[in-house]
Predict the structure of Glycoside hydrolase family 97 protein.
Amino acid sequence: MKTTTHLAIAALALAASGAQAADAVIASPDGRVELRIADNGSQFSISRRGEAVIAPSPLGLELDGQPLGALTLESRQDVAEDRVIPLVATKAATARDHYRGATLTFREAGAGRRLFIDARAYDDGVAFRYRLEDTGPVKLRGERTAFVPAGDPSCLVTPSDGSHEQSFERLRVSQLKPGVAYDVPVVCATPSGRTHYAITQAHLKGYTGASLRQEGNALRLHLSGVPGRAGPAFVSTAGLTTAWRAVMLADQAGKLIESHLVGNLNPAPQGDFSWVKPGKAAWDWWSGPLVGMKADMGAYKRFIDFAAESGFPYYLIDVNWAWGPSGCCDAHPETDITRPAKGIDMAELARYAEAKGVGLLLWAHWVHVDARMDEVLDTYVRWGIKGVKVDFMNRDDQQVVDFYERIAAATAKRKLLLDLHGAYVPAGLQRTYPNYITQEGVLGAEWNKMDRRITPQHNLTLPYTRMLVGPIDYTPGGFRNATPQGFEVRELMPQTQTTRGQALAMYVVYDSPLQMVSDDPSSYRGEPGFDFIKRVPTAWDETRFISGEPGQDIVLARRQGKTWYLGAMTGDQARTQKVSLGFLPPGTWRATIWQDGEVVRELRRTQRKVTREDVLSLSLATAGGAAVVLEPLPLP
């Protein structure tokens, strides 16, 4: 049940005499987190439990043409919120949105223009944004916003590129390269280690994306401009509301996984999304060629049959199904995505799939979709398609942010699922449009076909970084497992650098309500562990971080209904993972355990009765993992 309390606490009008005002302090509901904003709007700082997290850091906008002059705090309007938001197809059934906030109104000397800063303090983070209520266009060169981490912390960072598919590395802020754009989230810890935090953004609607660059001891925000468009990075038709600048906070790096902060900074969905059905999908591209896949009714029906036999609700038909030429990354002008390739009857294929309980998803290049969005999507609905995977935007500027909003709304209107690839890092749009069910923007398993970057350490870094802000279409499920030393890069029928146990654990650890089962059907038949993949859910009622350190290991527990699922992964070191079951309710439970065997593709499957007093001992090989299902047993 949804409960909402929204209380405007006070409106404070400062004296017009020009008396010096105090800095504005917004404290979290538990009083442990404070966001402090200077009385002239020039800087902010963040502390938690009395410890500095972000030292005094610049605030402000860089307007094109007529910059804002000196500001003074004119008024403050406080607000408190505590509500429970029902969620659809994600990592939990509900999210608590609980904060104290304020809108600070700053007035410009002389000209009298006003800058509004909306600020919020949650128990697990802070956020702020800027607003201008102009009636005319606003041209913005950039923001003055920067983050000055207290001390010189060690942070997990990744360079920002078009597809947001780069590796993370751990560097101190002083070691970052000036001029290099770093992606969000940037994940750090205070020098004491008592607070771990992630700097990110939320709710980009009507705005543009951003990256962070080192300037001295600061991480300076840089807005993404439209390629080939000279002048300001952002132009509005009237007024301005920026994205939220957010800092997630927790005692441990893994506890950030549980946070709903990014979603809570986005509007709730409007309308009924109960039709959104999470689940797993068979997929044809990962095991096939990079380019040149042949459109073939028989091959498509083979994957449909596999999905039906396995109980998967979807099959994703990737590139080359459409009429005309189609390459890897560019939108060929002669390709027509409203017509299937010669010999393909898409409507008949959809009927064949539906008769077997399988829905079809189609791949398309975003340029082809953007050119005639309504016609394309209406055609797919007429065929009986259940969702689209749209690819290769590879940008996060104002135009592409607008495309995300339009495609999310257009697919929601037609009850189509949406999966974006070549995508920027999530900023919470999934909260507003739950049919936007997953996305890429991650260096995922597809790169096993091309290079060696999908290392055990990389796999153990993603849950603590990219996954903090939204679902990741990493595309797990590779069953041609190899040791890192024995791994070979190959385009067809690729390998992975993990054990079979880690392949299973990814389905619990990696958050993706639409989850690929990426390998060829022949790779799964009769193979150990496929029984777990067939039964593991993709959306959850509760998520709990149990233990782990970035790049080294993780144990994550997720619940659907009364059944709990555990995923345990390790990186470059084999380990015996001790897992306390204290998170379970009282009673007796049946634990079904899949853990690494003697060789990389072997599993040991065992069952035992356990209670919340027990500690599981899981044997994880190098680059290994384990998966556990915990089911309550009836009372005797």
